Amino acid sequence: MKKLNVNEKYDNKKLNKFLQDNIPNLSTNLFYKTLRKKDIKVNGKRVNENVLVHKDDEILVYIPDNLLENRSNLQIIFEDANIIIVNKPVGIEVTGNNSLTSLIHKLYTNCEFLPMPCHRLDRNTSGLLLFAKNKETLDILLKKFKLHEIEKHYLALVYGTPKLSYQKLIAYLFKDSKKSLVYILDEPKKGYSKIITSYNVIEKHSDGTCLLDVQIETGKTHQIRAHLAHIGLPIVGDGKYGNYEINKKFNKKVQELKSYKLKFNFKTDSGILNYLNGKEFILK
């Protein structure tokens, strides 16, 4: 059973509009089936018509949870009153139309504050993405990312073996928005931004690939993909900065890059989020 209260946004709107916006995965067919069975109550009275609802009405809906399974396959790794950590799938943008953010908004329509992402991942990069559930949390987390007090770790499967097991790389990146590409130089140049990328070798494989733990101190577009390719370690499956023959050899059409760990290393007061300090979330 689900209990909802009508807010001002849905005052004098149809019952189906309110419920379908506020109950994830409630289809039109399921709504009318539930209505016919008189399994919906408005202010304590069972209804079997698509009535108008009004501000502060109390709606009770009797639908088994298994009929409302999340068809989006959205995997929430952690959630509390302030944050949501989601495992972003490949093939979806973080923001924009039909994005992960718009999907989250549909799931949390009835909230006063629609959850907002605190950082970004490329469309075809999967893994942990942090959302704020209120304005105070959003402001704190955006500041913490800027101060590098939240560690973001990525797993990258690259082709090639680094000479060093750990390296901190500094280079300069130029973004060509028209071509949706970035270019890397080892020396500074006008129009190029400084980037810092670090890696640790996790595993070396007999097939010529290597698994890296990657961190970035600067979050520029395509930074990890372009920077690793620049030093001769293209990510397997990367169609933009990788190697076509290598991608074909391993039958990979999407970059093998995943945001797999978030760690909170607060060095300054974090207000309502102090309880997160020292915690880490790992995608297995």
Summarize the structure.
It is built from six helices and 17 strands.
Which structural traits does this protein have?
single chain, 284 residues, alpha+beta, Structural Genomics Hypothetical 15.5 Kd Protein In mrcA-pckA Intergenic Region, Chain A, Pseudouridine synthase, 3 domains, 11-stranded mixed beta sheet, 4-stranded antiparallel beta sheet
The tally of strands reads 17
Secondary structural class: alpha+beta
Number of helices: 6
- What is the makeup of the main sheet? 11 strands, mixed
How many structural domains? 3
- Which radius of gyration do the C-alpha atoms yield? 23 Å
User: What oligomeric state do these chains adopt?
Assistant: single chain
Write a structural description.
It is a single chain. The strands form three sheets. Strands 7, 8, 9, 10, 11, 12, 13, 14, 15, 16 and 17 form an eleven-stranded mixed β-sheet that branches. The protein has a four-stranded antiparallel β-sheet with strand order 1-6-3-4. Strands 2-5 form a two-stranded antiparallel sheet. The chain is α+β, with helices and mostly antiparallel strands. The relative contact order is 0.12. Helix content is 18%, strand content 33%. It is elongated. The chain has helices at residues 15-22, 28-36, 100-107, 135-146, 223-230, 244-249, and strands at residues 2-5, 13-14, 40-42, 45-47, 52-53, 58-61, 75-79, 83-88, 116-117, 126-132, 150-159, 166-176, 181-185, 193-204, 209-216, 257-264, 280-282.
